[in-house]
Amino acid sequence: MMNYMLNRMNCFAVVFIVAMAGSCKSSKNTTAETKSASATLTEAKTTLPENAYRVIVSFISTGAGTDSQAYAKLKDFISRNDEKGVAISHETINWGREGEVDVCFKLKEMDKQDADKFVEDLKKTFEGNNLVQVTENSPALHQPRPQPKSE
Description:
By secondary structure, the chain is an alpha+beta fold. The protein has two domains: 2-45; 48-139, Alpha-Beta Plaits (2-Layer Sandwich), CATH 3.30.70. Helix content is 48%, strand content 17%. The chain has four helices and four strands. The protein has helices at residues 2-23, 27-46, 68-83, 112-125, and strands at residues 52-59, 91-94, 101-105, 132-139. The protein has a four-stranded antiparallel β-sheet, covered by helices on one side. The N and C termini lie far apart (89 Å).
C-alpha cells in the first residue's frame, strides 16, 4: 500500500512539474505575437469587407416608438456635412413595427481620418440616448421589414 501511495505522489509531482514548465514561455515570443495581432486589428479598421458598414446608427424602441428628435438630429448632422462639400451616401433599413430604423454609412467618400472624425462626432451627438445605438465596422444589423402588398 505504501509503494502505491509513493508511486501516485511521484506521478503527481512529475505531472505538476511538466505543467509548470510548459506554462512558462519566453516574453520575447509573446511580444512578437502581440505585435502581429495589433497589426491585424489596424488592418481591419481601414479595410472593411464589401458587406460591412463603417458605422450604423440604429433608432430603437422600447415599446413607445423611436426618438423622432434624434432622427431629426441625424438628418441635420448629415446635411451639415453636405454643406462642407462632402456628400455622404447612406442606406436606410426600416426593420421594426414602431418605426425602428438603421441608417448605414460606408463612408467611402472620406479618407480614414475624416471617417474616424465623422464616427466620433456621431457618437458624441447621441451620447446618453438609450434609443440610439451606434455600431462600428459591422454588416447590416437587421433585415428590411417586408412591405404590405397593395392590391
